[in-house]
Design the sequence.
């Protein structure tokens, strides 16, 4: 009865185009009321408790850090460095875009933030160099998805909080898969651009010019080293790292690069606050949903069904998991999907002997692909807002790039050693 109410209300809400966060909250409330065993007071307590978490403080701080880095001229200098070294390669500017997204991902922890920051700079230049608008925006949207895989990553923070998994361990595990995604996109760009006849920059930079570009961008390049080095060495926690990142971004933006004025701070804080509000609402609504399916045994029943369907075969279960998460990524954001599917899928994965951290990376890579799959692909909408174009116009160019991501997904899924190499090396 409770299970039926929960999913029927959720499906109806999604069909009538209710926002995902509200749909999850309403369906959870309906299920609790249908159960009749819990008071409304307890529901409120559960909502408050779900948001009362020290690690979750990293989310608004990483969002603010991304805003500060974007406005402070960090992305522009990273772009210049990458162009100096890789601009002459076939499809050079496209490859540079991917590398810049990888660097910016190590600052913001957000896919849409990466798309917005890098896209606003790169799009005019790529169009000027003869790249098609559809490919340019498709590439930026897809490369921006690296933002939720390369640490620091907001979905990794959420996964760590909801499963009591080490967030530092998650960050370490996400590093190599994130680089692998970047390499996959670079290879895809090279062959696609070669086919289209899009050559690299004709200019040959001297060693002196390369060193000058690196020196000019030194403060931007040091930032990921400070954040990740501090986390991995145990100097500070991921939450403290988020605070350090925000303060660092503010200092270099105001005093070093002098791109941020104090008058601009109000707007950036408001933007960060509005993004945080959306994320936190989804978190508390989705946590209630996860709690309902756990308490009422729904997660256990679905887990047992999956065990029976796959006959205990880990490879079959992982394939089904990828299909479920890829489909879910088409219709809901990463935060909602994590809270809904973690209590269902994780117990089965651990029962089959799959590492908790490695499974978290599988989920994050799946949901990274979800950022660029319609109809809810947030990165696609962000890219469209940069330059006047519809998602329909981008689909043809998005598909081959998504195929590259799917290849990486299969590697990360069936070779968990890729994710666990760095944590094992560092003794996690």
Sequence:
């Amino acid at each position: 009865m409770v299970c039926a109410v929960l999913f029927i209300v959720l499906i109806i809400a999604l069909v009538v185009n209710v926002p995902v966060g509200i749909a999850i909250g309403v369906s959870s409330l309906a299920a609790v009321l249908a159960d009749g065993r819990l008071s409304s007071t307890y529901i409120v307590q559960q909502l408050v408790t779900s948001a009362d978490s020290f690690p979750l403080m990293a989310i608004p701080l990483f969002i603010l850090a991304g805003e500060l880095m974007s406005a402070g001229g960090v992305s522009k200098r990273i772009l210049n460095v990458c162009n100096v070294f890789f601009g002459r390669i076939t499809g050079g500017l496209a490859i540079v875009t991917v590398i810049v997204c990888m660097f910016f991902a190590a600052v913001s922890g957000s896919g849409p933030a990466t798309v917005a920051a890098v896209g606003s700079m790169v799009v005019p230049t790529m169009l000027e160099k003869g790249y098609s608008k559809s490919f340019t925006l498709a590439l930026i949207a897809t490369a921006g998805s690296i933002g939720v895989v390369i640490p620091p990553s907001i979905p990794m923070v959420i996964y760590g909080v909801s499963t009591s998994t080490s967030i530092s361990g998650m960050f370490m595990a996400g590093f190599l898969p994130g680089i692998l995604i970047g390499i996959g996109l670079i290879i895809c760009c090279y062959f696609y651009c070669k086919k289209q006849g899009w050559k690299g920059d004709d200019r040959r930079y001297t060693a002196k010019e390369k060193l000058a570009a690196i020196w000019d961008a030194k403060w931007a390049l040091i930032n990921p080293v400070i954040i990740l080095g501090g986390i991995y060495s145990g100097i500070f926690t991921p939450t403290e790292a988020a605070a350090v990142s925000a303060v660092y971004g503010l200092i270099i933006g105001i005093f070093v690069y002098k791109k941020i004025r104090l008058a601009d701070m109000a707007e950036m804080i408001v933007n960060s606050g509005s993004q945080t509000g959306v994320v936190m609402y989804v978190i508390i609504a989705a946590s209630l949903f996860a709690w309902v399916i756990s308490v009422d045994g729904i997660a256990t029943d679905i887990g047992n069904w999956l065990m029976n369907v796959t006959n205990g075969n880990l490879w079959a279960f992982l394939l089904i998991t990828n299909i479920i998460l890829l489909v879910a990524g088409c219709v809901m954001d990463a935060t909602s999907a994590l809270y809904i599917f973690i209590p269902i899928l994780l117990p089965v994965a651990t029962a089959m002997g799959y590492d908790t951290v490695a499974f978290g990376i599988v989920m994050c890579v799946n949901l990274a692909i979800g950022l660029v799959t319609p109809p809810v692909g947030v990165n696609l909408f962000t890219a469209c807002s940069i330059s006047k174009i519809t998602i329909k116009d981008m689909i043809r160019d998005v598909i081959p790039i998504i195929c590259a991501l799917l290849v990486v997904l299969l590697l990360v899924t069936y070779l968990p050693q890729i994710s666990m190499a760095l944590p094992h090396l560092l003794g996690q």
Summary: The mean pLDDT is 80.
